[in-house]
Amino acid sequence: MDYQNNGLRSTAALEARLRHLREAFGGMRAIDVTENRIEKYKETRLSEKTGRRGGKTQPATVNRDLAILRRAFRLAVGQKRVSAAPTVTLLEENNVRQGFVEPADFEAVVENLPEHLRDFARFAYIPGWRKGEVQSLGWADVSREAGRIILRRENSKNKEPRLLPLVGELAAIIERRWHARAIQRADGSTGLAEFVFHSGDGRPIGEFRKSWKTACRKAGMPGLLFHDVRRSAVRNMGRDGVSQAVAMKITGQKTDSVYRRYRIVGEQNMQQALERVQAANTRNKKRRVVPISEVKEAVAR
What we know:
With about 300 residues, the chain is mostly helical. The chain folds into two domains: about 1-80, no CATH class; about 105-260, Orthogonal Bundle (hpI Integrase, Chain A). Helices cover about 50% and strands about 5% of the residues. It has 14 helices and seven strands. The chain has helices at about 1-5, 10-25, 35-45, 60-80, 105-110, 115-125, 130-135, 170-180, 210-220, 225-240, 245-250, 255-260, 265-285, 290-300; strands at about 50, 55, 140-145, 150, 160-165, 180-185, 190. Strands 3-4-5 form a three-stranded antiparallel sheet, with no helix packed on it. It has a two-stranded antiparallel sheet with strand order 1-2. Strands 6-7 form a two-stranded antiparallel sheet. Helix 2 (about 10-25) packs across helix 4, helix 5 (about 105-110) crosses helix 9 and helix 10 (about 225-240) packs antiparallel against helix 11. The chain is globular.
């Protein structure tokens, strides 16, 4: 109910995580959910295998479970259902993903995507918008005359509306999509698509994980996730001199810590920085010692 009241969109993920918590603590009295039992839960979850390859559950995954447990207790205390809550300490996360893709490599991936996904991916790559935000984009959100898009609050993950100026390639993408609005319905009639990005039938873009994986493999970029596009956008902005404040407005990131996690510094960034520093050092190596006689002469004038 708390998720529904606050308009949180991750209820499906919540149900999956609640399953693990219910298996461990279901039917137990709140007072019996102690710090010791929570530590045993961590140990058990970390030892579980996940996925087809049988890898172990990562600390970040367990932390999402623990965050739900901690919130449940805080709500219970606030509603005076229990008098106290156990201390829920999160695990240290050392599996932060470092994936990103350079513009040329990204375009190689795009060229191997189905036609209806190409502009979708290109659009996401520039401002670093989340997949769901791009999927939700409708023509009601676009003002071609004013040259801007306003992402509605209900479609923004951080629950804040977001303005995006349409310039350069972004404007070109929107123009292409404008001319691709015409759709043919199942009954043979024609109409105009409500969504900017659709599969040809007017419906918003659905799940495309398999198509993305295939395109990445063909482009020689196996293992690249679509969410790495968002990380890449943040990295590109930082590399091109966009200030953190402006970049966060564009991408919709609310906290400095999240922005820093996404702003990946690559080897090329470091190489370019070192080249600039060494070039400056070389220019400054030549000392010009001015003889005291020249100083006295200049003062005398």
